[in-house]
Every structure is written in C-alpha cells, then in structure tokens.
C-alpha cells in the first residue's frame, strides 16, 4: 500500500472557533478558539492520543472530526474524502464508518430507550440487517463488553456508570467503524475497571464479532 492508501484520516489546519456575542443586537465581538490549526495523520490500525489540560480543545477536535461540530476552517480527509465539504446526505452515507464513544455515560444514553433500542439504533438508522439479526448482534455486543444479554430490555438508569459506558461502547461498535473516537472513555469510571474498558475499545474493526451466520448482517461480518 502507498502512504496515502495507508492513511485513514488526515487533518489539515483544523480550526473550530465559537463566536462570542454581546450587546442588544447580539453582535459578534470575538471568538473562542477551541481548536486552532491542528494537523495530524492517522494510519489504518493506528491509535492516536491527544493529550492536554482540561478545556484545551481535545473533545472539540474529536467531535469536529465527525462533523458533530462544523469547522471554522481546515480540512478533514477520511479515506481520501474531505468530509468538511460534504452535504448532509453524503455525510450520512459515511457515518457508519465513523463512530464515537462519549465521555459522559449518563448524558449520551436516551433514558427513554431500552438497552436493546440504544445498541441497535445505528443499525436501524442506516437500514442494516433485519429485526432478528439486530437483536442477535446486540446480544453478542453485550457479551463482548462484559454485560449479560438478559439486560437488553432494561433502561439506562438500571445500570452503574461503568455499565452505562460499556453500553455506549457496544453501540459505537455495532456498525464496525473504521474510525473510533474515544472522548476520555474512562475518566468518569472507577480505577478498578478502567483497564478493562480500555481493552474493550482497543479492537480490530476487521475482526468478525460473531462467526455464527445468524449474526451476520449486510456484509458487515
């Protein structure tokens, strides 16, 4: 493979500025430069860590890479495509290959949805698999992150913070993404389970989650 073919993500002069408004007419008087001129490459199979003090823009950079925040300037190439300039429809087609594990396990799960609905929601949104295959995959993902599949009909409030984080990880892995962004996935967890959680997110997207044909969905293993 060439160097460009091996590169999964490339950020060029990435900038995310949040405007500051003041006065009766809410005119912009300045901007918070959360990310200002960030450059990096991530090759396939590589792990990149952003290190910095609280508030320095790590989370903003991660969200910008998935266009959860719009860029002020710069370019993000994912598999050779600049996603910063994609339309919403084109970006939607690329979403299954890019997923994120959020920092707060309480805020990122819908309290009105069961665990089954939470984990299978990405599959439903992208019309992947049948109802039965989604349930089977959800069971396998629950076991993968160390939770009992019998808990699929429970709601997030029934779980501890560490268990909710595992549910968020299972949801992020459901689509077998090529790019997995982890926003401090263990910062809110007890030290005793941090290593175990990190083992969950250090996965190979090309690894078949299940070798059982009943769990294979739409060519995703």
Quick gist of this model?
31% of the residues lie in helices and 22% in strands. It is α+β, with helices and mostly antiparallel strands and 221 residues long.
What does this structure look like?
With 221 residues, the protein is α+β, with helices and mostly antiparallel strands. The protein folds into 2 domains: 1-86, P-loop containing nucleotide triphosphate hydrolases (Rossmann fold), CATH 3.40.50.300; 87-221, P-loop containing nucleotide triphosphate hydrolases (Rossmann fold), CATH 3.40.50. Helix content is 31%, strand content 22%. Helix 4 (115-125) crosses helix 5 and helix 5 (131-144) crosses helix 6 (161-173). The chain is globular and about 55 Å long.
